[in-house]
Every structure is written in structure tokens, then in C-alpha cells.
Amino acid sequence: MKQILSITDIKLLVDSFYKKVREDELLVDIFNGVIKNKWPQHLEKMYRFWQTILLGEHTYYGSPFAPHAHLPVEAKHFERWIELFYATIDELFEGEKADEAKWRAQKMAEMFLLKIEYYKDRDSKPLL
């Protein structure tokens, strides 16, 4: 097992994880519905995101939540996303950065779900 130390490691993590997502019965339609034929651009953005988060090399600029705000997802989707992410990390990596990646992914999933549920609830209520 190796540690996450470089952009090469980040690319291995991201590519391996999204290969699982693209084969997952629960997640594939949601991801393909949004990303469509722009997978190379999405993967590149994910490389930069995780490079910034895990390696401290600031290459990602943007707001990670905004593209997810109105996705048709619920807790089961985030649970599966986390399950696949953890499995990918555990298959490929060990060490401090691997643990940090899992912790950050878990916190991000929790926050995204809370915010998505907030928007769904807010959008479903009448204005008066």
C-alpha cells in the first residue's frame, strides 16, 4: 500500500473512484445526467479539488457545493458515494492523507446532504 503524496496519487484515487461511480447502479444515472459527455473536464476538476485539499497545492478555485444544490439525491446516494470512496481509498492507500481524505469526504457528504435538504424544503414551501 502507498500513501497519497503527489498529483499522480490524486489522479489514481479520483480515476479509480469515479470508475466505481460510473458502474454503480444507484449513482451512475445521476452523475451521467449532470456530467453527460464532460467526464474529462469533471475528472480534471476533481484532481484539482483533491490536490488542493490533500496536498495543499492550491489549484482548485470555485464553490464545490453550487453544482450540487439541486441534484435529485437523498441520504442513500450519499451513503453509497461514501461507501465507494472509502472502498477506493482502502484498496489503494494508507496513512495520514488517506485517513484525511475519508474524513473530509464524510464531512463534505454530510454538509452537502444537509444543504440539499434545506433547499428542497425551502423550495417546496409557499412564499406566504
Structure characterization notes:
The protein has 128 residues and is mainly α. Helix content is 70%, strand content 0%. Helix 1 (7-23) packs across helix 3 (39-55) and helix 1 crosses helix 4. It is globular and about 50 Å long.
- Principal-axis shape: globular
Q: Please write the string of helix (H) and strand (E) elements.
A: HHHHH
Query: How many individual β-strands?
Result: 0
SSE class:
mainly alpha
- The stretches of 5 or more residues where confidence is low (pLDDT under 50) are none
Helix content: 55-70%
Note the topology.
Blueprint: H1 7-23, H2 28-35, H3 39-55, H4 75-92, H5 96-124
Helix pairs in contact: 1-3, 1-4, 4-5
Quick rundown:
The protein is mainly α and 128 residues long. It has helices at residues 7-23, 28-35, 39-55, 75-92, 96-124.
Question: What would the keywords be for this entry?
Answer:
mainly alpha; 5 helices
